[in-house]
Every structure is written in C-alpha cells, then in structure tokens.
Amino acid sequence: MSAPEVVDARGTRCPTPVIRAARASRGRPAGTVLVLLADDEAARSDVPAWCRMRGHTVVVAREEGWTRYTVVLGGAAASGPAARPAPSADTGSGSTDARST
C-alpha cells in the first residue's frame, strides 16, 4: 500500500481547503486515502460536509493550530451523488431540521 497523498491547505481560507481536496480526489478509486491539513475554522464543518455529500469517510484529528482530515474516498470519488454518508467526528453539535411546515 502506498502512502496517502497529503494536501496541505494550511494558510488558506474557505473554500480553498475543500477545493484542493476535491481536486486531489478526482479520478481516484474508492478506498484511496487522502490527508488534508487545514487551519481554517470553516474547514471544520466544510470538509465533513463535503465528505458526506460525496460518499467519503473522514477522521478528524485536531493538532495545535491546525486540523488533519484523513479522508477515505467512497464510490462517488469521480462522479455522482453520495453512496453513503460519512460519520462526523464532531459530536458536539446536534442536527436540526430547517424545513418549515
């Protein structure tokens, strides 16, 4: 097994970390591991949301001053809607339904 590709987006701001991760994932098969490094606060919600939408899984590890996102690409790496949702490492926030009845 080869080492995962590391995408260093530290020092960039939203939406650059997600854009760089998306570009790195293009054309890669399911099961490929990417490591995204980011220090943008918005990435803490943006990266897991992108993973859920694309069918990837993500493990979030906070380091001092930045965060490491280990992303395992799912079946939607190259195209199409998410095959399965990625678990979120952030369990501190509840979800709410924003729809009006």
Automatic annotation (TrEMBL):
**Biased composition, class Low complexity, residue ranges:** 77-89
Q: Looking at the record, which segments are called Disordered?
A: 77-101
Q: Which regions are flagged for Polar residues bias?
A: 90-101
Q: Which PROSITE patterns match?
A: UPF0033
Q: Report the residue ranges that make up the UPF0033 domain in this protein.
A: 7-31
- Annotated Gene3D superfamilies: TusA-like domain
Which Pfam family name is an example for this entry?
A: TusA
Q: Which InterPro entries match?
A: TusA-like, TusA-like_sf
At the top level, the lineage of the source is Bacteria
So what family is this one in? Answer: Belongs to the sulfur carrier protein TusA family.
Q: Know the name of this protein?
A: tRNA 2-thiouridine synthesizing protein A
Organism expressing this protein natively: Phycicoccus duodecadis
**Highest lineage ranks of the organism?**
Bacteria, Bacillati, Actinomycetota, Actinomycetes, Micrococcales
